[in-house]
Specification:
- With 119 residues, this protein is mostly helical.
- It contains four helices and two strands; from the N terminus they run H-H-E-E-H-H.
- It has one domain: Non-ribosomal Peptide Synthetase Peptidyl Carrier Protein, Chain A (Orthogonal Bundle).
- Strand 1 and strand 2 form a beta hairpin.
- The model has no long low-confidence stretch (mean pLDDT 81).
């Protein structure tokens, strides 16, 4: 029983649970925003629901609606989450600076070679 309690109280399990719940909630936000965009498309060009589109008797409208929704969701995620995250991360991360006094592997090998040559 103690092992099970330890398993449940691990930090990464709690972090994963929080991330999952926030991800599901954020999914609802993106879905709602996508619906707004689809409604705007409907106002501009007619009906945003392509479910009645058929080619040769085969209904492909549901697929077209899903693809348009996917592209809108991907754009919202990219421009609303990924790009701002990358910008913030680049501003807060420090560039890697080489230590000037630290010898490289080649320098150490040359020094070892020179010491062996002296013996």
């Amino acid at each position: 029983m103690a092992g099970f309690k330890e398993f449940l109280m691990r930090g990464n399990l709690i972090d994963l649970a929080v991330a999952f719940i926030l991800g599901a909630s954020f999914g609802n936000v993106v879905t709602a925003f996508t619906k707004i965009i689809m409604d705007i498309i409907g106002k501009l060009g007619g009906n945003p629901d392509f479910s009645t589109v058929a080619i040769g008797g085969v209904n492909i409208g549901v697929f077209i609606t899903a693809v348009v929704s996917f592209v809108i969701m991907a754009a919202v995620l990219y421009f609303g989450v990924v790009k701002p995250y990358e910008r913030i991360r680049s501003m807060t991360s420090k560039p890697a600076v080489d230590e000037p006094g630290k010898p490289t592997s080649e320098d150490l090998l040359v020094e070892i070679r020179d010491l062996l040559a002296k013996k």
